Amino acid sequence: MPNLTSKQRSLLRELFGLEQEQPLSLEELAESRNTTPQNVRALERRALRRIDVRRRRITRRVSPIMPFKAGEPLTSKEKRILKTLWGIDDGILKEYLVTAFLCDATFEEVFCAETKALFTSRSET
Predict the structure, then answer these.
(1) Using DSSP, how many helices (H) and how many strands (E) does the chain show?
(2) Residues 54-77: pLDDT tens digits?
(3) 40 near 30, Cβ under 8 Å?
């Protein structure tokens, strides 16, 4: 399973607001990185594609109920789950069950946190 690069981890950290209260917009990220929003979007797509490789294996077996509304912000627990799952701090993508164990969460909580983040990200585009 491919891991995320440090640029991809940094982008996801800022884009999903995993370490600050509010996520940054594409324009804010582009400005802070001296690049265009299109380049930021391309980097985001590459990072999410790496995440989707693992996710596709799981979604064949799981039919989640999405207990959230579109546009609902991530909770602090969901942010912690995503940081662990996506390897934001250590650079290693984790499996759902490993993340559940490390975050004292259930498999469903981990899957739904990622679904919520990805659904919200894609619905804004």
Answers:
(1) 6, 0
(2) 666 655 555 555 566 667 788 899
(3) yes
